[in-house]
Amino acid sequence: MDFLSDLEQRIAAVSAFAALDVAAAARRSDDDIVRLIEAGSALVRVGERLRAVAAGVAATRSVRESGHAGLAQARGHRDAVSLVQQLSGSTRSDAAKQVRLGESLLEASMEIGRVEAGPGAMEESPRGLPWHAVVDAAVLAGGVTVAQADAILRGLGDPPADPGDVAPGRQAVEAWGIAAQQLLDEVPVRTVEELAAAGRQIRDRLDAEGAEARYLARHEARSFRMWTDADGIHHAKLRFDDHGAAWVRSMLDSALRPRRGGPRFVDPEEAATAGDLIADPRSNDQLAYDLIIDVLRAGRSPTHRRSSARGSPACAWSS
Q: Exposure winner among 46, 126, 176, 255, fewest CB in 10 A?
């Protein structure tokens, strides 16, 4: 099915509601509202697919080698992501997703074209279809959204190259393709965030050597920065390594469990404490902030100041 035919079908599904505006929607039944959300979402997905393909084409025509003659550069943009962001009115992150998916769709389409052209054409691509071909097919069929596909693609990442080669081997491509299909099967029961997390976990199991390198990179990327904005409000940006993130998350989860639907306490004293926390007028974010500040004040010592200058991947938050 081409984009136009699919688009016509989705428009027909929305048109079945006849005249519809905000006031008319407010008078619809609950079942109608659910169907309208489904129909509208399906219509949006077709538009997203069409935009992703166009974004991928724009990216191929805006490569650095094209210089100022590139599609994006000729229109005053640094790259295709900037062009898509301006045209779509989206965030740069969303525009980057569109471009990444579009490039993926084009790559798979080219490989499929070589397969259909015969063995001679396949000599240009001896490894066959890319591992993400199953994801691309699901996108074109409307089975997954752009956000879901991007979560799978980024979560799994590209398979590692064979030693002495610049491209992944057949076994790696097949393993990543199987992993991608597994995640596609889980789309109905997983959120976008869960798909990305599952993809990263699978990648680390498939590529143990790369997992260690990524772990060390996350450790090296740890940082803390503070600044004050024009209104005098103080801000901070903290980039965790794995150990630090686990320690802070465990601390906050334990302290805020009564606010987040944790188990009921049998002990009267613990139950009373949980009740006080639930009744506390502070928001969860405010409680988390106050807890972290309390921990920092309690843990302030010369020992902590000395150890902060060292920091190795094996050094967890043990104090």
A: 126
